[in-house]
Amino acid sequence: MARGSNALSLKAARRIALAAQGFGVPRPANITRAHLAKTVARLGLHQIDSVNVLARAHYLPAFSRLGAYDRALLDEAAWGRKSRRRLFEYWAHEASLLPLGLHPLLRWRMAQAARGERGWTTLRAFAHERRPEAEAVLDRIRAEGPLGASDFDHGKSRSGWWEWGHTKQALEFLFWSGRITTATRRGSFERVYDLMERVIPPAIMDLPTPAPADAHRDLVEIAARAMGIATMADLRDYFRLDLDDNRRAVESLVEEGRLLPVTVEGWRQPAFLHPGARQPRRIAGQALLVPFDPLIWERARTERLFGFRYRIEIYTPAHKRQHGYYVLPFLLDGALVARVDLKSDRQHGRLLVQKTTYEEAAPPETRERLTAELALMAEWLGLAPPPAL
User: Fold this and answer.
1) Rounded alpha-carbon distances, angstroms, from residue 223 to 17, 44, 241, 274, 385
2) If 0-12 CB within 10 Å is exposed, 13-18 middle and 19+ buried, where does residue 335 land?
3) N or C: which end of the chain has fewer CB within 10 A?
4) Rounded distance between C-alpha atoms, residue 16 and residue 274, angstroms
5) Tens of pLDDT along the chain (389 residues)?
6) Are strands 7-8 and 286-288 parallel, antiparallel or unpaired?
7) Distance between CA atoms of residues 374 and 389, nearest Å
């Protein structure tokens, strides 16, 4: 479809979305820090999740796009020494790894949390009547250096005020409000917290804080660039903005020409195209997608784009699961054609395929190419590959 048109076919919208997410281009032969940095910048964030049945979720989006990269590169960017750090942890879509440059754009959210206007309900008391408890935790980190929740006494703390669970709540409040962030991770992926200013480089901390409305516009534009084409709800969901803040940001970006209103075949809601979005004629390649990949994390958008109904069934009783426990959709040449329930059997050094389900429209080569992608994943994880499907 011509660039100036305001109506797009569903297939064109799908190709735009995939290209914006970094699919449809050859994977690099030698994956460097620069490749990883470009991928994270393109996506805007990597969601963190505690489930480790296959691999930690934040490692997978880069694998899906780049192939078998060195996971130590991501560890270094996220939790390495300050001179190597390129990412920080904060609440964005959910708990996320974010490029350092996004720190100023999220300070309005930190300020809201500090005032008790954001964050889980149980944390908001720490902005008011329980503020001394949070300040005591902060003082201990300031004096002793990086600490995790397990470093605080079980039972009463040295202040004599609260149980361990309350200490964890105080830490989460301080995290939400931007006073602390994750310095590193240890053990079973436990956060080790430090003062924000001791983790984030001074060059980032010294950047001016934009007005909230300006930050909202920039976040929506980042989301639009990452998705290529999106509805109002899609744009809001990417960084979990409030309804009115998102609406005002979208309207302003449209007025400025930073978003282009379009219609998409079969979509009931109006859509918005990022002006820089590529519109390729075809998408080639294959990838396994973690449930928290930004291409598919919004299930309604996944169904709207691909005609693929996807739900994560971790919390579904085993006898009621349709496709499995930890199911990854398989992307093949621009279509979602299969889903595979995977597990890393670390004790025996194997990648296990618990179940595979093929879509009706899956092409004949799906099985062979999925087998190849599973072999690549197994090599990346240091496991023996599963048998051919």
Assistant:
1) 11, 7, 11, 9, 36
2) buried
3) N
4) 10
5) 444 458 999 999 999 999 999 999 999 999 999 999 999 999 999 999 989 999 999 999 999 999 999 999 999 999 998 888 999 999 999 999 999 999 999 999 999 999 999 888 889 999 999 999 999 999 999 999 999 998 986 544 444 444 457 889 999 999 999 999 999 999 888 999 999 999 999 999 999 999 999 999 999 999 999 999 999 999 999 999 999 999 999 999 999 999 999 999 999 999 999 999 999 999 999 999 999 999 999 999 999 999 999 999 998 999 999 999 999 999 999 999 999 999 999 999 999 999 999 999 999 999 999 999 999 999 999 999 999 98
6) unpaired
7) 10
Reduced to 3 states (helix: H, G, I; strand: E, B; else coil), residue 346 is coil
Taking the CA atoms of residue 160, residue 163, residue 164 and residue 169 in that order, the dihedral angle to the nearest 10 degrees is -100
Edge-to-edge, what's the strand order for the sheet holding 46-47? Answer: 46-47, 95-99, 87-91
CA 210 – CA 108 distance, rounded (Å): 8
φ, ψ dihedrals at 271, nearest 5°? -125, 165
Nearest Cα to 231, choosing from 2, 8, 1, 5?
Answer: 8
Indicate whether this model's pTM tops 0.90.
yes
Residue 371 in tokens: 């087998």
Residue 148 backbone class (left: φ over 0; alpha: ψ -120 to 50; beta: rest) = beta
Distance CA 283, CA 333 (A): 5
| CA 376 to centroid of chain Cα atoms | 22
**Amino acid, res. 373:** E
